[in-house]
Amino acid sequence: MELIAKDDSQYFCHTSDGLYDRHHYRVVSKTGASVDVESYDEVREIWWNQKHVLSHIEVIDCKSKGGGFV
Length: 70
Fold this sequence. Notes:
By secondary structure, the chain is α+β, with helices and mostly antiparallel strands. The chain has one helix at 40-50; strands at residues 23-29, 34-37, 54-61. Strands 2-1-3 form a three-stranded antiparallel sheet, covered by helices on one side. Strand 1 and strand 2 form a beta hairpin.
C-alpha cells in the first residue's frame, strides 16, 4: 500500500494542538435517569465503570463562543 506523502496537499495531520470538544454528552441509564457531562473523557469513564446499567449516550451540541476549540 502506498501512503500519501507529507508534502502532498491531501495529507492531513491536525490544525491545532488546543483542546477540542464541540459537544456535551448525556449519559442515560436503563431506568431513564441521566447525567450531563462536558467531555468525552467523562463519558468514557462513566461507561467503563457503569456500562452494565447504562442505556445509551446522547450527543448535545455545545454552545461555545468560537468554534470547537476551548
